[in-house]
Amino acid sequence: MGIVLRGWGSALPEKIVTNADFASRLDTSDEWIVARTGIRERRFGGSTGTLAVEAGQRAIDQAGIDPATIDVVVLATTTPDQVMPATASYVQEQLGCGGGAMDVNAACSGFVYALVAGAGLCEVGAERVLVAGADVMSRITDQDDRGTAILFGDGAGAVVLERVEGPGKLLGWDLGSDGSLRHLLSCDAGGYTQMNGKEVFRQAVRVMVDSCSKTLARAGIAPADVTLLVPHQANTRIVSAACDRLGIPMDRTALVLERTGNTSAGSVPLALADAADNGRLADGDIVLLCGFGAGMTWASAVLQWGA
Ligand code: UT7
Q: Of 43, 130, 205, 274, which alpha carbon lies 20 to 30 A from 10's?
């Protein structure tokens, strides 16, 4: 058994927060934020549930399937709407999906974790799985802390996985975690995100390169054969440093962070949907997804595009 990706969708709240908005009340500037991160604006608003429903509805519509035929909703999020129940249960009810529902928390790596978990569910018998990544990072970010406020935004993306006979389109994957680094990026219940930016940056480049290399080696694919790298949207400089080491040119990456900021578990599916919507993917293309973040966790997966 294997999987194909049948549909995709994304969602962003309406409210745009620009770098100038931060510069008007914090000791920062548009120049600093663009040069150090690549971010120009981000969106604030909605809830994890509403954003995931919007993205999920688009993915279901595009796949042209009856939502009742979805056996499991797997929602990656770090900002569930409630401690319990899982936000996935709200998504399941709102979209009219059948079967089970669960949240997955692997921070910014969450969507790729959920994708691999969804593929595993198909392997053991699920026909269709809705895999979503959604976060409302504005809720857990101190908007007066210039070190973190400028980085994060809210957003969601989703895909429909469908089980097929044969090897399917997930060609390789790698999931990793080093809990000894969990102090680098964390948020206590009811608190705000704390981050050692410099060290997270250094580790992010390292794990992105290691994980993507492992995944490509397992799939027997050379970096030169990757059509599109869809990285976690945290910082253009992280992507550029990792691309240099991997031997993947920057023009073969999907980047939306200029408009979205870092939307944590929403970021990889947002960038994937944007690339697909803009005609950057054709049948047979090799797509490499990579997430990294708090934990530290990291995750990569290589797919062949097309149903
Ligand atoms: O999704 C999870 C993954 N998270 C990440 O990937 C984040 C990884 N880290 C980063 O992206 C970068 O470390 C940042 C963008 C957060 C910071 O960039 P940096 O080049 O590492 O800057 P820095 O932390 O070394 O700070 C340099 C200076 C400091 O001032 P001093 O100590 O040199 O006087 C900071 O206080 O820049 C200062 N600074 C700012 N200045 C203007 C920090 N934030 C700001 C700001 N505006 N917003």
A: 205
Strand partners, 228: 287
The model's pLDDT over 166-208, given as tens digits with 9 standing for 90+, comes to 889 999 999 999 999 999 999 999 999 999 999 999 999 999 9
Domain residue ranges in the chain: 2-164, 170-304
How far does the centroid of ligand 1 lie from the alpha carbon of residue 198, in Å? Answer: 7
Question: Which listed residue (19, 105, 122, 232) is catalytic?
Answer: 232
pTM over 0.90: yes
Question: Are 70 and 39 a contacting pair, CB within 8 Å?
Answer: no
Superfamily of segment(s) 2-164: Thiolase/Chalcone synthase (3.40.47.10)
Asked about 232 being catalytic, the answer comes back as yes
Q: Give the class (CATH, top level) of 170-304.
A: alpha beta
> Look-up: residue for tokens 């910014």?
108
Which pLDDT tens digit goes with each residue over 66-111? 999 999 999 999 999 999 999 999 999 999 999 999 999 999 999 9
- Which tens digit of pLDDT belongs to each residue from 37-68? 999 999 999 999 999 999 999 999 999 999 99
Ligand 1 centroid vs 190 CA: distance in angstroms?
Answer: 24
Contacts 24+ apart (CB under 8 A), 16-20: 16/41, 16/42, 16/43, 17/41, 17/42, 17/43, 17/44, 17/153, 19/150
Ligand 1, atom 29, residue with closest C-alpha: 147
In a mutational test of the pocket of ligand 1, which residue from 37, 140, 182, 201 has the highest number of ligand atoms less than 8 Å from its CB? 201
| Contact predicate 75/134, CB 8 Å | yes
